[in-house]
Design goal:
The protein folds into three domains: about 120 residues, Immunoglobulin-like, CATH 2.60.40; about 70 residues, no CATH class; about 80 residues, no CATH class. Strands 1-2-3-8-5-6 form a six-stranded antiparallel sheet. A hairpin with a 4-residue loop joins strand 2 and strand 3. The longest helix has 16 residues. The chain contains seven helices and eleven strands. It is α+β, with helices and mostly antiparallel strands. The N and C termini lie far apart (about 75 Å).
Length: about 290
């Protein structure tokens, strides 16, 4: 079907399959078949920082809701700049060549900080940039231990995984032996000691708060804002922000932690009425 020039006849499918463009369509099919494409949502306006003015060179970007998968298309651009501060963890980088259906690895790891420039491989025409969250190995996989672990970390597991992605520290002697088949125990102990000492120096690095306000609610004497912000690159905190009304600003600020008293199933809601409180919370505040 051709809506521009009806007098031009399209070749039959049997002939069209021999065209080079049919091969390119296969490469596109192979690429999208290898990823969970149904999770992707367009976000080129929010993440691309060097968008072209020429519509023929405008780049496209889509990512999953949890930002663990990103696909960007560059029609004829030398580079793409992406705000990496919007991602929860470091990302693995690969390039996909649309004219050959092959991959090329990018930098080993790209941190989730600031605006990063990705340069298209030399002599490529259009290209696809693929960013994937680095998956850490499981807690039990391929590890030979003499007993079951004492702690599975519970709700802290995701935070610990992100912290490790930021600073990968591994003291496992078995993995070290595979990487250094001729190494001695003394060599491993020296490296393990250095690794341990580095790990004990807590340094989350530069922080992008990336604060958000989800809602505002006027109440008697104050305005309640439901907010979220980063406290480290791997921890995002949800909270309430109370702004007094009927006063002259600026006013002193007070940080209130929910601590450990009261019903343990609840956090910040122990202090601030969410508007849909459980009876246990009402009783806790009144007692």
């Amino acid at each position: 079907m051709n809506w521009v020039k009806p007098n031009i006849k399209c070749p039959p499918v049997s002939e069209g399959m021999n065209y080079v463009y049919a091969t390119y369509l296969k490469y596109m099919y192979d690429f999208f078949s290898s990823i969970e494409w149904w999770r992707l949502e367009p976000d080129h306006e929010g993440l691309i920082k060097n968008q072209a003015d020429n519509y023929r060179q405008r780049m496209l970007l889509a990512k999953s809701g949890d930002s663990s998968l990103v696909v960007a298309y560059m029609p004829d651009n030398d580079k793409i700049q992406i705000d990496m501060g919007k991602f929860p963890a470091a990302m693995k980088v690969r390039w996909y060549r649309t004219t050959s259906g092959t991959y090329q690895n990018g930098p080993k790891l790209t941190t989730n900080r600031g605006i990063h420039t990705f340069n298209k491989p030399n002599k490529w025409q259009d290209a696809v940039l693929l960013l994937e969250k680095v998956e850490m190995r499981g807690l039990h996989s391929k590890l030979h231990i003499s007993r079951e672990p004492l702690n599975l970390y519970g709700s802290l597991e995701e935070m610990i995984r992100r912290l490790r992605e930021h600073r990968p520290l591994d003291l496992n002697a078995e993995i070290w032996r595979q990487a250094h088949p001729g190494g001695t125990f003394e060599e491993w102990r020296a490296q393990a000691h250095s690794c341990l000492m580095d790990g004990l120096h807590y340094n989350p690095g530069p922080l992008n708060l990336n604060s958000e306000v989800f809602s505002r609610e006027k109440r008697e004497g104050f305005v309640l804002e439901r907010v979220a912000f980063n406290t480290t690159p791997w921890i995002r905190v949800n909270g309430y922000f109370l702004l007094p009304t009927g006063v002259e600003y600026p006013v002193p600020g007070l940080v209130v932690f929910h601590a450990w008293g009261g019903p343990m199933l609840f956090g910040r809601d122990r202090i601030v009425n969410s508007g849909r409180d459980h009876p246990v919370l009402v009783e806790h505040r009144e007692s």
